[in-house]
């Protein structure tokens, strides 16, 4: 089997691509660590906001079902969200976002929408685009999001 001339393979990467300068490399890993720290929190507040908008309430049982985790996992994460001032609740009532939680949910939702629309503009099927966007949204910089959004708009204007 012959590689196509445009296929990216490890042997086609330049030395700089394969191993960037140490300070740049450290920044890359720091960005990933930071994204991993906030990823779960953003997913939860985004889902809570969606549940509140579409169902009128955000119950722990709904969160567990939609995230595919146990009630205990949701309870533990909600406790963390409360301690960070992102959600509030009353006994036997659904969850509510604080102003800080609403701001995080809005930002996360916007990032998600940009990545999802970009993937669709590339021709990725809706099902796969939704799966991929869920992870990617946490790991792209604002610069990359801006370029994704510009690309999507250009594709949409070409097809109009």
How would you describe the overall organization of this protein?
- The chain is mainly alpha-helical.
- The chain has seven helices and two strands, in the order ααααββααα.
- Helix 2 crosses helix 5 (99-122), helix 5 packs across helix 6 and helix 5 (99-122) crosses helix 7.
- The protein is globular, with a radius of gyration of 19 Å.
- The termini are far apart.
- The relative contact order is 0.09.
- The mean pLDDT is 87.
Distance between the termini: 40 Å
Percent helix = over 70%
- Give me the number of helical elements: 7
Total beta strands: 2
Give the overall shape, derived from the CA principal axes: globular
Radius of gyration: 19 Å
| Run of helices and strands | HHHHEEHHH
Mean of the pLDDT scores?
A: 87
Low-confidence stretches: none
Task: Note the beta-strand portion.
Answer: under 5%
Main-sheet strand order equals 1-2
Structural class label: mainly alpha
- Biggest sheet record: 2 strands, antiparallel
Write the layout of secondary structure elements.
Elements: H1 15-18, H2 22-55, H3 60-67, H4 71-83, E1 87-89, E2 95-97, H5 99-122, H6 126-136, H7 142-159
Antiparallel strand pairs: 1-2
Helix pairs in contact: 2-5, 3-4, 5-6, 5-7
């Amino acid at each position: 089997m012959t590689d196509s001339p445009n296929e990216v393979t490890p042997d086609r990467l330049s030395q700089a691509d394969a191993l960037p300068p140490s300070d740049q490399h450290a920044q890359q890993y720091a960005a990933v660590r930071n994204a991993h720290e906030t990823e779960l929190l953003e997913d939860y507040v985004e889902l809570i906001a969606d549940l509140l908008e579409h169902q009128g309430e955000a119950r722990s049982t709904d969160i567990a079902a939609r995230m595919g985790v146990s009630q205990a996992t949701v309870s533990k994460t909600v406790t963390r969200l409360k301690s960070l001032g992102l959600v509030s609740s009353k006994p036997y009532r659904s969850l509510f976002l604080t102003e800080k939680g609403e701001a995080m949910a809005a930002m996360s939702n916007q990032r998600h929408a940009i990545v999802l629309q970009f993937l669709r503009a590339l021709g990725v099927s809706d099902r796969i685009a939704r799966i991929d966007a869920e992870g990617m949204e946490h790991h792209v910089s604002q610069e990359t999001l801006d370029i994704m959004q510009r690309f999507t708009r250009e594709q949409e204007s070409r097809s109009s």
